Amino acid sequence: MDLKKKIRVSYNIRNFTIKYHSVNLNPAIRVKYRVRLHPNEIEWSNPTSERIKSYSYLKPGNYSFQVTTFIEKEADVKSISAIGFTIVPPVWNQWWFIFIISIAVAGLIAVMISLRIHRLQREKHQLSEAVKLHTQELQEKNRELESFAYTVSHDLKDPVGVIVGYDQVLEDYLKKQNVQGTKQFTEGIKRNSDRIIHFIDDMLQLSRSGRVIEKAVPTDTKILVSQIANDIKQKRKLKNNFITINNLPVVMADADRLYMVFHNLISNAYKYRDKKRTVKI
Description:
Helix content is 49%, strand content 18%. By secondary structure, it is of the alpha+beta class.
């Protein structure tokens, strides 16, 4: 065997044996051997005539097995013979594998950090959009609330004014004991009282849900305008009819809202009239 050539041994070979011998030309001399495995063994073994040495579970690394002859009564150490071998570590313990794994792990961490940053940015954008949308909804509800509060405060004046007008006329009729003529006034009082209750219900609904939901029902606009004309007549104590009503359709609408639309139009038309001329609508 070429003693200068290193032998490579796989890490999974747990046990191996080294055999050795020497040439003795003098049968009268009994040759013994001393061995050591560098760097695990610093001291030489005791002299023995055995020519075999076994090792088990050596760690990966470089080793040198050394052997020398020992002759009794001779104190000097004869020439040393040695053979080197390497226990090859597993792939996962080699520097190049560790380097590749380190690069791969670093790349994976970088990708995870990048994905995390991207997800946080996306969540931040979504949160910003949600806050913006919520803010817009709050602003819209505030505008609706302001508009509704103004409308209610304005529209409640007319039913109350009409009720007061009917009450005064009713009082005059009762003084004259004209009981039969009181029916239209009591109906007017009831109708306008119902409208006030409806407005109050809308305000309660607005306070609970933040939005008023209008319900469309079939509404006869001719009857509605007739009621408005009669209410304005009683409120302003007019003797003659000032409005002519032609055929009007039945529409799907919130009756109370439509009442206020027509009432405001007709009431404003009368309020801002030319007082020198007879009013005809």
